Amino acid sequence: MNATTIPSNGSNASNATGANVPGTDALLCVEDLQVRLPGLPPDQPILDGVSLTLQAGRTLGIVGESGSGKSMTALAIMGLLPEGARAGGRILLQGRELLALPEREMQTLRGNRVAMVFQEPMTALNPVHTIGNQVAEPLRLHQGLGRRAAMAEACHLLERVGIANAAQRLSAYPHQFSGGQRQRITIAMALACKPDLLIADEPTTALDVILQQQILDLLDGLVEEHRMGMILISHDLAVVSEYSDDVAVMLRGSVVERGATQAVFARPQHAYTRQLLAARLHMLEPHVPSAEEQAQERDAAAGAAAAAVWEAEQGARAVEPGPDVDVEGQP
Ligand SMILES: Nc1ncnc2c1ncn2[C@@H]1O[C@H](COP(=O)(O)OP(=O)(O)OP(=O)(O)O)[C@@H](O)[C@H]1O
């Protein structure tokens, strides 16, 4: 689909998306991106005419059903497409054409000017290296810091993302942290070189609601503080609605609608966007249990009560106390 055929709505939409012309001040401008993968028919591109624009200091949400091409768009921007993939169109970062960049230069950009946070933190963390070394590595590699200075900065970054006792934990390994802490560590790594563009691909999907909010608040604050641009990929419309200034809706490898988030969500133009929003509303509607569900709930409650009585009886029969349990307060 050509960029000009994509509906965009709302008064801010032109601000958010109208800078889709070379020479404007957009941080990122993706124009008519096509991606073909080997083994698939050439007339079935994985991405077909994706166009996006992101300004510094703003967050662009990308939503769409599973398999619509959200992650592939992110990987194309990062220069991390699968082996043998062919990409067409243009990806301009501060006016610089990324698709034409030699791999060596792209490597310099990655982790330096553009960084990515993945859904699964272990994708980015190396299990056999200490956290300190991993957070310090981009600082040594891209910023030329010495070992001591890089470690001090790594410690500061870990504190910044809320890792308690960061100085003592620099020598710990990824498996010694909880899932939420590991995700914070990958954010610290991604932010180490103060990138201009951060891509967060479902960064909090695996986490509980409280941690999810803490991490999104953290990213949101950093966008403002560093005037970064962030692409937030999420299947959660509520998250996108709260944290994104602009939104792009993807369907089968194309962007079908984009614009200022509040305008798109308030007045969706494309049938698929309406469908997505309707599905979300349906999920939010209070569920009135049927008579059968009420009976099942009563049975489950009775079963749970019987199990509690059994456990209490077992506890009372226990003669020897068990070993002390070390309860760590950290989530
Ligand atoms: N390495 C790969 N080789 C071949 N096809 C792939 C590969 N990775 C993804 N695809 C295909 O590309 C299409 C887009 O996938 P992508 O991962 O971008 O979707 P998505 O919108 O991010 O989905 P999800 O929300 O489930 O992560 C899908 O049809 C997927 O099957």
Structure overview:
With 331 residues, the chain is α/β, with parallel strands linked by helices. The chain folds into two domains: 3-113 and 193-281, Rossmann fold, CATH 3.40.50.300; 119-192, no CATH class. Helix content is 41%, strand content 19%. It has twelve helices and eleven strands. The chain has helices at 13-17, 70-78, 103-109, 131-143, 147-160, 166-169, 179-191, 209-226, 237-243, 261-266, 271-284, 291-317; strands spanning 8-9, 28-36, 47-54, 59-64, 86-93, 96-97, 114-117, 197-201, 229-233, 246-251, 254-260. The strands form two sheets. It has a seven-stranded mixed sheet with strand order 1-11-10-4-9-8-7, with helices on both faces. Strands 3-2-5-6 form a four-stranded antiparallel sheet, covered by helices on one side. The protein is globular. It starts with 7 loop residues before the first strand and ends in a 14-residue tail after the last helix. Adenosine-5'-triphosphate (ATP) is lined by residues 37, 46, 64, 66-72, 82, 235. Residues 312-331 are annotated as: Disordered. One of its GO terms (molecular function) is ATP binding. InterPro entries: AAA+_ATPase, ABC_Ni/Peptide_Import, ABC_transporter-like_ATP-bd, ABC_transporter-like_CS, P-loop_NTPase. This is ABC transporter ATP-binding protein. It is a peripheral membrane protein.
